[in-house]
Design brief:
The protein has 113 residues and is mainly alpha-helical. It has two helices and two strands; from the N terminus they run ββαα.
Length: 113
Protein backbone atom coordinates (compact mmCIF):
# COMPACT_ATOMS: atom_id res chain seq x y z
CA UNK A 1 0.00 0.00 0.00
CA UNK A 2 1.38 3.41 -0.87
CA UNK A 3 0.46 6.67 0.73
CA UNK A 4 0.39 9.84 -1.29
CA UNK A 5 0.85 13.25 0.28
CA UNK A 6 -2.55 13.07 1.95
CA UNK A 7 -3.82 11.62 5.18
CA UNK A 8 -5.99 9.10 3.38
CA UNK A 9 -5.08 5.44 3.68
CA UNK A 10 -7.45 4.50 0.91
CA UNK A 11 -6.32 2.07 -1.73
CA UNK A 12 -8.38 3.70 -4.48
CA UNK A 13 -5.17 4.50 -6.35
CA UNK A 14 -4.29 0.82 -6.74
CA UNK A 15 -5.70 -1.96 -8.81
CA UNK A 16 -5.80 -5.64 -8.00
CA UNK A 17 -5.88 -7.49 -4.70
CA UNK A 18 -3.41 -8.96 -2.25
CA UNK A 19 0.24 -9.01 -3.23
CA UNK A 20 -0.60 -8.42 -6.90
CA UNK A 21 -1.58 -4.78 -6.35
CA UNK A 22 -0.01 -2.45 -8.85
CA UNK A 23 0.26 1.29 -8.41
CA UNK A 24 -1.61 3.47 -10.83
CA UNK A 25 -0.19 6.62 -12.34
CA UNK A 26 -1.49 8.60 -9.34
CA UNK A 27 1.53 7.67 -7.22
CA UNK A 28 3.86 10.60 -6.64
CA UNK A 29 7.31 10.39 -8.22
CA UNK A 30 9.71 8.47 -6.01
CA UNK A 31 6.90 6.64 -4.23
CA UNK A 32 6.37 2.93 -4.51
CA UNK A 33 3.91 0.49 -2.99
CA UNK A 34 4.90 -1.88 -0.20
CA UNK A 35 5.05 -5.37 -1.67
CA UNK A 36 4.34 -8.79 -0.16
CA UNK A 37 8.05 -9.38 0.48
CA UNK A 38 8.11 -6.41 2.84
CA UNK A 39 4.80 -6.98 4.61
CA UNK A 40 2.88 -10.10 5.50
CA UNK A 41 -0.44 -8.37 6.28
CA UNK A 42 -2.32 -5.27 5.19
CA UNK A 43 -1.74 -3.74 8.64
CA UNK A 44 2.01 -4.20 8.31
CA UNK A 45 1.85 -2.87 4.74
CA UNK A 46 0.03 0.23 5.98
CA UNK A 47 2.62 0.80 8.72
CA UNK A 48 5.50 0.34 6.27
CA UNK A 49 3.86 2.70 3.75
CA UNK A 50 3.58 5.37 6.45
CA UNK A 51 7.22 4.68 7.32
CA UNK A 52 8.25 5.11 3.69
CA UNK A 53 6.37 8.42 3.47
CA UNK A 54 8.01 9.62 6.68
CA UNK A 55 11.47 8.55 5.47
CA UNK A 56 10.99 10.47 2.24
CA UNK A 57 9.81 13.59 4.08
CA UNK A 58 12.69 13.34 6.57
CA UNK A 59 15.11 13.23 3.63
CA UNK A 60 13.56 16.41 2.25
CA UNK A 61 13.92 18.19 5.61
CA UNK A 62 17.53 16.99 5.88
CA UNK A 63 18.36 18.27 2.38
CA UNK A 64 16.95 21.70 3.19
CA UNK A 65 18.80 21.79 6.53
CA UNK A 66 22.07 20.99 4.78
CA UNK A 67 21.37 23.71 2.24
CA UNK A 68 20.95 26.20 5.07
CA UNK A 69 24.13 25.07 6.82
CA UNK A 70 26.07 25.41 3.56
CA UNK A 71 25.34 29.13 3.36
CA UNK A 72 21.96 29.03 1.66
CA UNK A 73 20.29 30.97 4.44
CA UNK A 74 17.87 32.81 2.21
CA UNK A 75 14.47 33.65 3.73
CA UNK A 76 12.77 31.57 1.05
CA UNK A 77 14.84 28.50 1.98
CA UNK A 78 14.05 28.98 5.67
CA UNK A 79 10.35 29.31 4.86
CA UNK A 80 10.37 26.14 2.78
CA UNK A 81 12.26 24.28 5.54
CA UNK A 82 9.65 25.42 8.07
CA UNK A 83 6.83 24.26 5.81
CA UNK A 84 8.49 20.89 5.15
CA UNK A 85 9.13 20.43 8.89
CA UNK A 86 5.48 21.10 9.62
CA UNK A 87 4.54 18.63 6.90
CA UNK A 88 6.78 16.07 8.61
CA UNK A 89 5.02 16.71 11.90
CA UNK A 90 1.62 16.40 10.19
CA UNK A 91 2.59 13.09 8.57
CA UNK A 92 4.03 11.71 11.81
CA UNK A 93 0.90 12.59 13.78
CA UNK A 94 -1.37 11.04 11.16
CA UNK A 95 0.77 7.91 10.87
CA UNK A 96 0.60 7.44 14.62
CA UNK A 97 -3.14 8.05 14.71
CA UNK A 98 -3.79 5.67 11.80
CA UNK A 99 -1.66 2.88 13.24
CA UNK A 100 -3.14 3.26 16.73
CA UNK A 101 -6.73 3.40 15.48
CA UNK A 102 -6.38 0.37 13.24
CA UNK A 103 -4.45 -1.52 15.93
CA UNK A 104 -7.18 -0.84 18.48
CA UNK A 105 -9.85 -1.92 16.01
CA UNK A 106 -7.99 -5.17 15.33
CA UNK A 107 -7.59 -5.71 19.06
CA UNK A 108 -11.33 -5.22 19.54
CA UNK A 109 -12.09 -7.67 16.74
CA UNK A 110 -9.72 -10.19 18.30
CA UNK A 111 -11.53 -9.96 21.64
CA UNK A 112 -14.93 -10.60 20.03
CA UNK A 113 -13.91 -13.96 18.61
Amino acid sequence: MAINNTTSTSTSHMSGTGSTQQPSSSLAPGRRPVDSEEAKSWFEAMARAWGNALDQQASRVTELSQELSNGGDQPSTMTVLTAESLKMQFLANNASTANNSVGQALETLGKKE
